[in-house]
Amino acid sequence: MVIQHYALKPHNTFHFNVYADYFSAPKNSDEIIQVLTNPLLRKQPLFILGGGSNVLFKSDFKGFILKPDIQSIRIIKQNEQSVWVEAGAGIDWDSFVAWSVDKGYYGIENLSLIPGNVGASPVQNIGAYGTEIMNVITRVNGIFLDTLEPFSFTNSACDFSYRNSIFKNKLKGKTIITSVEFVLGKQGKIKTDYAGVKEEVFRLGKPTLKNARQAIINIRESKLPDPELVGNAGSFFKNPVVKSAVANAIALDYPDAPIYKVDDQFAKIPAGWMIEQCGWKGKSMGNAAVHKNQALVLINKTGKATGEEMLALALEIERSVKLKFGIEINKEVNVV
């Protein structure tokens, strides 16, 4: 079913009051192809929408928004050590993590409470607390938008890197993901080496899979606003990876700077730390603001912010960081 002049406020976590000219949420690949062969819709600008947690709508979308709503989960195969699972693109990501933990499957528990849908997870190569999704993805399935032919990419074909994939660069706007296949462990060891995780796990009791998930949830909830209550898209900026010489120079001026070595040539500096050093934490510009507890998160403070206001705030923050540190920070959100 295709709906005209469709309200997108329930489908973007900033809660911007914007509309799409046309909207459809097909529940399987056949329905996707059906709407994509509609002569009227083929002429419209197209945007593929997932959970709406990583998108900033500047204004109404003059075109067609397609939101895959494929909800199936199936076990492809398994052995004593591992299980291979295919999950539909429309499944809420955290619900999928909860499902895997309830089943006793290891591998994605540290990615708990990340907003969005399964279909978006490989696009961003989502990651948190020492885990990246690229390490458990075996295949990504979907449809090429130009030919409407199916594809099935192996992990190596996805060209994963830090918060990046082939779907975000070379194939951006050229595919629609229908399902993602994962390999999860029936046995495993929880990752607690990220700051604060071990302490929270042991505060909850034993280092079990369920306690690991709850620890991550507790940590994220203590730092990040609930998008159901305060409009936000989680981390607005990527953490920049810079040359070691640049990081070393910053460490001389800021001995307590949280700098993480990537390899012998590069290091990662948290964008949130730099934004905070620029004095933006808790500051507002109109109806848009920087969260008081986490400077990496921009929020719709009053519930009345527009995408243009949020973007203006982001640009000012980028300028401040560039001026103070000589480092360019890039948006993690998709500006539409």
Description:
It is an enzyme of class 1 (oxidoreductase). The protein has helices at about 30-35, 40, 95-105, 120-125, 195-205, 210-225, 245-255, 270-275, 305-325; strands spanning about 5, 20-25, 45-50, 55, 60-65, 75-80, 80-90, 125-130, 130, 135-145, 150-155, 175-185, 230-235, 240-245, 260, 265-270, 285, 290, 295-300, 335. The chain has about 325 residues and is an alpha+beta fold. It has three domains: about 5-65, Uridine Diphospho-n-acetylenolpyruvylglucosamine Reductase, domain 2, CATH 3.30.43; about 75-185, Uridine Diphospho-n-acetylenolpyruvylglucosamine Reductase, domain 3 (2-Layer Sandwich), CATH 3.30.465; about 230-335, Alpha-Beta Complex (Uridine Diphospho-n-acetylenolpyruvylglucosamine Reductase, domain 1), CATH 3.90.78. The strands form six sheets. It has a five-stranded antiparallel β-sheet, with no helix packed on it. The protein has a four-stranded mixed β-sheet with strand order 1-2-5-3, with no helix packed on it. Strands 13-19-18-17 form a four-stranded antiparallel β-sheet, with helices on one face. A hairpin with a 3-residue loop joins strand 6 and strand 7. Helix 5 crosses helix 6 (about 210-225). The longest helix has 19 residues, at about 305-325. The two termini are about 25 Å apart.
